[in-house]
Design goal:
This protein has about 425 residues and is α+β, with helices and mostly antiparallel strands. The chain has helices spanning about 25-30, 80-90, 105-110, 150-155, 185-195, 295-300, 305-310, 345-360, 375-380, 385-395, 405-415; strands at about 15-20, 35-40, 55, 65, 70-75, 95, 130-135, 140-145, 160-170, 170, 175-185, 200-205, 215-220, 235-240, 260-265, 285-290, 310-320, 335-340, 365. Strands 11, 12, 13, 14, 15, 16, 17, 18 and 19 form a nine-stranded antiparallel sheet that branches. The chain has a five-stranded antiparallel sheet with strand order 4-5-9-7-8. A three-stranded parallel sheet has the order 1-3-2, covered by helices on one side. The longest helix has 15 residues, at about 345-360. The chain is globular, with a radius of gyration of 21 Å.
């Protein structure tokens, strides 16, 4: 097959792309393959999804089924979050959180522990209540929250099989409003970080690591009480018009700000559902540090500002709640996420990442699995106390390495 990931920085080497339309076909393909991986919406920035053969789940029926009594929805793993949200609206239910882009597949986001923001919000994988998995033998395995090894199956990095269906927690539908504040001083961020991230249901700080910390986007759930409009947020002033996270860009495709209430799915993402990014002229990296080290970690990156800024488009700072999923970067620790959207220059980004990763290493920084990072399995291994359990789970479900690839060996499992 030919084709690249969304950013265009990686060209897939697979010789064949399968497009099954039934789970039975998925089972047949997997059972007959020597090496195969599931390809999601191509929003990863590395060879994480590549293999000799690739499997797209986009052709599977969406199969959206809401169980109001259980408070769940089940759907095809190939469905995108924007599509799922549209199916949920007539049912008057919602997901607790979304990522900044609604165009990513549910299965891919869960497998890599992709996240939104909020002190009390776990990553998207924490919403998983059950899953259906085609193992290397073609067997269809189902698991539910509370089952043995379930916490190892959810953030599976594509190593355990082809996840064909997921069951997610839902709650009654709600509305959200958001406001952007600009010119946040570094001193205010340093002194009031915990109060800033607690200022809304979901909070993002956008920074260029310059003279000021930058912009703060506060998303709040709408309640019966009238909104208490802030005239400032720790010195940052409210924007008078919608603003793009990258200040010099047109905000036309951002979700409405200025406190205008809207459906949860029309406000939690930063960008509109109807706007699909036409190109990915960027690279992305992200690192998660424990909340207790947030200030020191930010100081370490600020010390590299002169190195970072020439290669940077924007950084985003978010918080993610702790969870119990073995391979989640938030495993047992509330985290600050330090995200970098880079210029599309792989060589320059690699040079900067050498310094950034070294600066964040003392804080036990864990990288986002779907983005660009340099750390190898030997470095990452000590950061995950359940890695050996995960490796044993891989050996049991995929003893011949059908779902293995170079990325897994280099970044996670090593040469075992």
């Amino acid at each position: 097959m030919s084709g690249t990931n969304w950013a265009g920085n990686y060209r897939y080497r697979a010789g064949r792309l399968h497009r099954p339309v039934t789970v039975g076909q998925v089972q047949e393909i997997v059972a007959g393959a020597s090496r195969v991986r599931v390809l999601g919406s191509r929003h990863s920035f590395s060879d994480i999804a590549d293999s000799a053969e690739l499997l797209s789940l986009e052709g599977l029926p969406a199969g959206v089924v809401v169980d109001h009594d259980a408070g769940t929805v089940s759907c095809s793993a190939g469905l995108r979050y924007g599509e799922l949200a549209e199916a949920l609206h007539p049912q008057a239910v919602a997901l607790a959180n979304l990522a900044s882009l609604p165009h990513i597949s549910v299965g891919g986001a869960v497998a890599t522990a992709t996240h939104g923001s909020g002190d009390g919000n776990g990553n998207l994988a924490t919403a998983v209540a059950g899953l259906e998995l085609v193992t290397a033998s073609g067997e269809l395995l189902t698991a539910s929250r509370g089952d043995p090894d379930f916490d190892g199956l959810v953030v599976g990095l594509g190593a355990l099989g082809a996840v064909t269906r997921l069951t997610l927690d839902v709650e009654p539908a709600y509305q959200v409003r958001q406001r952007m504040f600009h010119d946040l001083a570094w001193e205010a961020l340093d002194e009031h970080l915990d109060e800033l991230t607690a200022a809304g249901y979901s909070v993002s700080v956008f920074t260029g690591w310059g003279g000021t910390a930058g912009q703060v986007l506060v998303k709040s759930r709408v309640t019966a009480a009238p909104e208490q409009v802030r005239d400032q947020l720790f010195g940052a002033t409210p924007a008078a018009a919608d603003r793009h996270p990258i200040p010099e860009l047109d905000p036309v495709n951002t979700t409405p700000q200025l406190g205008v209430p809207g459906r949860w799915s029309d406000r939690l993402p930063h960008f509109r559902m109807g706007f699909t990014p036409s190109s990915g002229d960027e690279l992305q990296s992200e690192f998660f540090v424990p909340r207790r080290h947030a200030g020191a970690a930010l100081g370490a990156v600020r010390g590299l500002a002169e190195l970072v800024r020439p290669v940077l488009q924007v950084s985003e700072l978010r918080t993610v709640a702790a969870d119990q999923l073995w391979m989640s970067p938030q495993y047992r620790r509330d985290s600050l996420a330090i995200h970098f959207t880079w210029q599309p220059d792989p060589a320059a980004v690699e040079r900067v990442l050498l310094e950034v990763e070294a600066a964040l290493a003392p804080f036990g920084a864990r990288p986002h699995w779907g983005k660009v990072f340099l750390a190898n399995a030997a470095t990452i291994g000590p950061l995950y106390r359940r890695l050996h359990d995960f490796a044993r789970l891989v050996d049991r479900l995929d003893p011949h390495g059908t779902f293995g690839n170079a990325w897994l060996r280099a970044r996670v499992l090593g040469d075992r």
